[in-house]
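Worked example 3 (structure in, sequence out).
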């Protein structure tokens, strides 16, 4: 994922795995409560079906205040990212593609014309939520990617892989879950990756969601080695789709005070 609203992401697998359980210092301060209001935007209306500008993509981002305490915005990569760097056994192209996209955050592909993103950290369960708003270059292509995601619970319901720097054996399960009140065309996927970290049994649990509104979309991944809070996933998808719809209609959601730019 390319962090337009944060620091660009790097991939240090060894350091990532060593820090997998100790990331309480990774977070930085969040903001206050937010309400959504309609107001004219300085950049002008973006009719439904038109790609967002860079400024509009940034405006459509949620903030830590949308998620509530103890979520805070951070400029750190998720501690578990190294566990998603792997090779799928059996040569399944779909499962390999999905594992790669979980790791880089581009669930709907990286063919974007504009994008903006933020990362949030939950100190209570050491989970990370990667959130991106993007305008895609080709609406037909991104719709195919959404359709592909919807088939994954059947095509990749369970598979095995070699993950991390030591190519540790892992079993991966993918199931679909509902996203109540999320707008547009959407899908929710829960992924459990069971493996060993430093010789100990470990399960990485991730909720992923994608929302598509014409050529514009939201993607997010939430979770960690202590689980994923479904409420946070649903909240991010619901409020995020509302904000995106507002921006696409030429309106400006309320600002998220205190968020990093």
């Amino acid at each position: 994922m390319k962090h337009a609203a944060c620091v660009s992401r790097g991939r240090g697998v060894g350091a990532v795995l060593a820090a997998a359980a100790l990331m309480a210092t990774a977070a930085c301060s969040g903001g206050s409560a937010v309400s959504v209001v309609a107001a004219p935007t300085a950049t002008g209306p973006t009719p439904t079906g038109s790609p967002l500008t860079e400024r509009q993509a940034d405006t459509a981002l949620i903030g830590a205040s949308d998620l509530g305490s103890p979520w805070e915005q951070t400029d750190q990569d998720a501690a578990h990212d190294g566990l998603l760097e792997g090779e799928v056994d059996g040569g399944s192209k779909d499962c390999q593609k999905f594992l790669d996209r979980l790791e880089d955050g581009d669930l709907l592909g990286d063919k974007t014309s504009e994008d903006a993103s933020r990362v949030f950290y939950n100190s209570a369960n050491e989970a990370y939520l990667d959130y991106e708003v993007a305008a895609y270059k080709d609406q037909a292509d991104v719709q195919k990617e959404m359709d592909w995601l919807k088939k994954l619970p059947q095509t990749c319901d369970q598979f095995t892989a070699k993950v991390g720097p030591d190519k540790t054996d892992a079993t991966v399960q993918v199931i679909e879950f509902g996203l109540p009140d999320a707008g547009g065309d959407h899908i929710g996927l829960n992924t459990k990756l069971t493996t060993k970290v430093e010789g100990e049994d470990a399960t990485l649990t991730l909720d992923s969601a994608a929302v598509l509104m014409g050529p514009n979309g939201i993607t997010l991944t939430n979770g960690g080695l202590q689980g994923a809070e479904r409420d946070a996933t649903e909240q991010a998808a619901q409020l995020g789709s509302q904000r995106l719809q507002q921006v696409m209609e030429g309106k400006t959601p309320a600002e998220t005070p205190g968020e990093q730019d």
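Notes: The first strand starts at residue 71 and ends at 74. DSSP finds six helices and nine strands in the chain.
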